[in-house]
Amino acid sequence: MENPEKSQLLAVLQVLKKYNLKGTEELLKKEANLGDGIDNNSLQQESDVNSVLTGYKSDGDPEAYEECYIELKRFVEGSLDIYKHELGTILYPVLVHMYLELVYNGHTEKAIALMQRFGPEQDIYYQDDLRKLALVTKRDHMNGNELTDTFKSNQFIIRMSRDTLSLLKRHLHDKKASVMVNIIQEHLYFDMYEGVARNKAQIDATSGAIIGEATRQDNKAKVLYGLPKAPDIQSLAAPVEDEEESNEQDTPDKPKKKKAKKDPFFSKKTKSDPNAPPPDRIPFPDLKDNDKIEKVKALREASRRVNLSPDVLPSICCYTLLNANHTVTCAEITEDSSILAVGFIDSIIKVWSLVPQKLKTMKNAEQLQDINIEAEDVLVRMMDERSGESCRSLFGHSGPICAISFSPDRTLLLTSSEDTTIRLWSLQIWTCVVVYKGHMFPVWDIKFSPLGYYFASASNDRTARLWATDHYQPLRVFAGHFSDVDVIQFHPNSNYVATGSSDRRVSLWDLTTGNYHLEVQTVEY
Amino acid sequence: MARHSDSDLYGTSFSAESIKVIAESIGIGCLPDDAAKELADDISFRVKHIIQDAAKFMQHAKRTKLMNIDIDNALKLKNLEPQYGFHSNEQLPFRFASGGGRELHFIEEKEVDLNDLIQNVNTKVPLEVTLRSHWLCIDGIQPTIPENPPPVTKEAQKLESVDPIKINKPSKESAGKPTTGKQKLRNVETVQIKQLATHELSVEQQLYYKEITEACVGSDEGRRAEALQSLASDPGLHEMLPRMCTFIIEGVRVNVVQNNLALLIYLMRMVKALLDNQSLYLEKYLHELIPSVTTCIVSKQLCMRPELDNHWALRDFASRLMAQICKNFNTSTNNIQTRVTRMFSNAISQGDKLALSSLYGALEGLSELGAEVIKTFILHRTRSIGARIEQHLEGSLISNLDKIAAGHIKSLLVKVLAPVIKNLRNPPDHLEEYKAEYGYLGPALHNAVMKARFQPVTTTTNSSNVMNNTITCAGTNIARTVTATSGIVQQQVTSVSTPGRTIVMNQTGRVTTPTGNQKIVFLTQRPQTPSNIQQQNQQNNTNQQNTVVKFVSNATTVNTQKLVTTQQKLSTGTMLSPGISQTNQQSISLVSKQSFLQQQKIKVEAMDIEEDVSTHFVLKDQ
């Protein structure tokens, strides 16, 4: 369990204890697997909790802050080259917290002066946050402000080598600048590691998030990144081939050729990847025959693809939406580029067929009864031939559409909207099938899993959620980001989702456990 | 993201003054300074916060422009009441009614005037979003279709023609070569024997060339319009440009000799289309195009029957083309404008040797080049030209052909000189001075200048006094021309029959522009010149013994007689330019509907005139 999480949990326990809510306390303890042993521990942490709650009360002389910062800067610049960059990483959090302390204690002019002098010289990936921070100039501005709350209630994580850290400690000990020592003790967390100090490029590669770098612990968990072999497809491959052979018996050369081509493709697949998760790690509903055929088709299609090279140049078809004037918010094309779905600001979704096949609707119930279910082309017979249209509109949302995702079999469409709902549409009967309510704020992104059934959403409420199409409530809530979760993507093996957030972190979440593996990256946009 | 300066971190905020002003506007008289300051700070913070959130919505809509709906959504996110202001200016219009022991709330529905709907007063519904697809790239090669950027940019073409040395190797390689194999060949040959490098058109291009050229000179007006549209908009024509130019040049050469007016017009329209194409830079081909265009301006004879055909329109159109060429391509090195001006000017100075039609062309060519050119090159020749056309207009030895030409020259000169003279001379305009300075053309110029001076006044005031002035002015004009020729007498007839309408027109506040639909305007402005002459032609042809006096004196008796003649005119008129007139049926009917509905005979005549005018505009517009 993570350190900041633990302290939060303990803070909650303390509060529960304070208000004498025994039952809840016991339950929470049990669920969090915290033994009684931590009771003492929690007492120790009490001061820590207080510091989290009281925030920035400080009796430091407002005049001293600027000098302190200059002195720290001079120390960083004057240190040896190998330590310089790592030491430099503390400048930004120190500046932020100095600024907040000054603002909190009512020294607005000093705070602004400090920010104007030293803000622009921070690394470029901090500039966005600094600009947001510069909005806060009054104590009551800090009330309920997302950014300052994040800074206040989380320690800024800095990774440092042992040597650098001891150098810093020695300096702080010598100087005895109380302002600096307070800030560093209360708001900075040093994740110490053995080895040589990192250089500028290495630091830049991992820093930039609101709460600093990822700790070593975070990225330690093993990720099963391989693709599992697909037994269902393999078992199906043989019958399909037989079928084909029987179909093409009049041309005896062809099937042989195909078989030769296909065999290595599947045999390569059968070699199990040591990094692949077991195929049953995530439960999926059994595939229908039709899905299997579809999948085999897709695989075959993929195997036919030609790699681009100077000799093999691509062909590109460009689709342009005319008369849209700023109303289009998102668009998505199916994997086989047969259907295009476009979301509009006025909550309409339009679906275009990009191939000569029209978008047909299913026959009504009475007509469906007449169809012979045993027929081979039952899926084709289901559709009403006369209803074909090249463009259809879907109505139902009540806010701008934020994201669209097609199911892998192209029969379902998911949309997320500013109206906080996610809707599942059927592309066979062209109506909304399910409305998923759960997010409290606009849902920025939505993605179907590569195998269908599951889907994940990312929202303005700082959570990402995992859903299954047949459950109207989320299966998992991934909380841990400090700002909007803007984008979400499934791992091809459907075992993980990656989220990107406005706190400029990318997190990888395990679907089975709900744990997260953190990777911090600088995102510049 | 760029590095931000100090000021960017804090940006601007509301000033205490603006807060005070806002406070005053809602009735808080004296807001204390510190309260205003406090409010300003807080409001700035809140507003910036809302904008910050709105930017999120902007980003998620993949836009770079913040729209009011983003602000709305940001407010909604904060659980604030959104601004209804820019959605609709009234709430749902619920009304309350009670009576008979019942209370009712209902939505008040406004009565809709069906007439408004029928007359389509409502604003247009925005167009539906549609999907359009095109190939950006096929096997790595970009097809040259209007949607794609041109293979060679206009700048590159310009650079190549203006300053070929500057072009470095890679950009030259990109200039006009369809296949890689040929490119190698070109590189081997190097720059010195550049003229040997030939462009080979692909099969599609050859097909396109064939189709376009056939359509441009063919008889199908619809296809021609399409072909010209393609020439004017397609970006990939760069490689075919030499052939197109050759086609035009050869076409002009042959058709001038054969006096094939229609084909010359078609070819000039092709030139116009090529000039209009935004992706082409024609500079390299000007040395071929300019002589052809010039031919169409000044050639002595352009049609089989100079007294019948409207070759004046071609000269006008070609002159406008020339002016466009000068405007687009004149540089300090090629001096096109200077050379063209000198060419026309030299032609005029040939004196009596020059045919009248050529003189007209040269004058028209010069006058299209702008007021400065008119002032320098035409104004001082007014006297001599006037003397020359006087012979043809008033002399006893009248050749019909020359008379028409002289009439055209006269009206052209009056039209182009009037604005220039108006600016040159100061208001007290004395007829004698004009006569002394401009000779034969003096009175007409005086008249036109008076009119030009007068026009802005009529549009602003409605005093009847002024109206009377206009009419008398027109009267003098007419009085002068009564003695001239039958063609211009007709002009007089019509204008005499319409003074009452002139007043009505001015009272309704319409500005008398040359392109308006009012007949009186056409008669005094340029576009009507060919038609007048044409009328005259027909009159001379159909009924040689035309009794001019009758027209003026007795309107009622003339009615029937005139109707007959105009009918004939109409038919001949359509015969002259069948292709063009057909396309303009709509505009003709529209115009005839609007003006002169009362009298059948004049209506027919109006149609005749309009028809010609509109053919004129067809040339101009396309």
What does this structure look like?
Chain A has helices spanning 3-18, 22-31, 38-54, 62-78, 81-88, 91-104, 108-118, 127-134, 146-153, 162-175, 178-187, 200-206, 231-247, 253-270, 289-304, 365-369, 378-382, and strands at 156-161, 188-193, 316-322, 328-333, 339-344, 349-353, 391-394, 401-406, 412-417, 421-426, 432-437, 443-448, 454-459, 463-468, 476-479, 485-490, 496-501, 505-510, 516-520. With 525 residues, chain A is α+β, with helices and mostly antiparallel strands. In chain A, strands 4-5-6-7 form a 4-stranded antiparallel β-sheet, with no helix packed on it. In chain A, strand 5 (339-344) and strand 6 form a beta hairpin. By secondary structure, chain B is mostly helical. Among the domains of chain B are: 10-77, Histone, subunit A, CATH 1.10.20; 153-164 and 199-327, TAF6, C-terminal HEAT repeat domain (Serine Threonine Protein Phosphatase 5, Tetratricopeptide repeat, Alpha Horseshoe), CATH 1.25.40.770; 469-500 and 517-543 and 550-622, no CATH class. Chain B has a two-stranded antiparallel sheet. In chain B, helix 12 (261-276) packs parallel to helix 14, helix 21 packs antiparallel against helix 22 and helix 22 runs antiparallel to helix 23 (486-496). The relative contact order of chain B is 0.04. Mean pLDDT of chain B is 68; it is low at 1-7, 168-197 and 457-622. Strand 3 (316-322) of chain A pairs antiparallel with strand 3 (130-137) of chain B, so a sheet runs across the interface. Chain A: Pfam families: TFIID_NTD2 (PF04494), WD40 (PF00400). Chain A: Keywords: Nucleus, Repeat, Transcription, Transcription regulation, WD repeat.
